[in-house]
Amino acid sequence: MAGIKETKELVTCILDFMEGIAVSLDNDGEITWTDAINFVSALKSMPRAFDGISEIPTEVGDLTENEVKELVEYVMEEFDIPQDQVENMIERALGIGFAVYDYVVDLQNIFSQEVT
Ligand SMILES: [Ca+2]
Ligand SMILES: [Ca+2]
Questions:
Q1: Total number of domains in the chain
Q2: How far apart are CA 22 and CA 60, in angstroms?
Q3: Which ligand has its closest atom nearest to the C-alpha of 49?
Q4: What does pLDDT average to in each consecutive run of 10 residues of the chain (116 residues)?
């Protein structure tokens, strides 16, 4: 069984980041330097999120009922998301995570082509 470690870490990072944006906009409708503090947990969870990201499709393809439950309960508790929205938010967080990762990989390729 693949477990859910990597999936959990990616979902955590995306939610941390999105929460950072939401909180930053919430206090005055704009994101300024004083909001940097709201992104500290996203920055902290980022290395773990991208490390081992290639394991996630295996983990997601192999989810047991208990693992789904664990993930759902974790996100509900950690991020205060209501039960009727939590699965939707997890799925979208994964989608965003992969999109960001693909984007970064392509960007790295562009940069490395410029150097050589
Ligand atoms: Ca990871
Ligand atoms: Ca703000």
A1: 1
A2: 27
A3: 1
A4: 93 97 95 96 95 93 95 96 96 94 93 79
Q: Which residues contact 34 (CB under 8 A, 6 or more apart)?
A: none
Pick left, alpha or beta for residue 80 (phi over 0 → left; psi -120 to 50 → alpha; otherwise beta): left
CB 20 within 8 A of CB 34: no
- How far away, in angstroms, is 29 Cα from ligand 1 center? 32
pTM: 0.89
Residue type, 12: T
Instruction: Confirm if 11 and 94 have CB atoms less than 8 A apart.
Output: yes
| pLDDT for residue 1 | 74
Domain extent for 30: 5-115
Q: What Cα–Cα distance (Å) separates residue 98 from each residue in 59, 66, 83?
A: 14, 24, 24
Rounded to the nearest angstrom, the distance between the alpha carbon of 34 and the centre of ligand 2 is 7
State how far the Cα of 48 lies from the Cα of 42, in Å rounded to an integer: 11
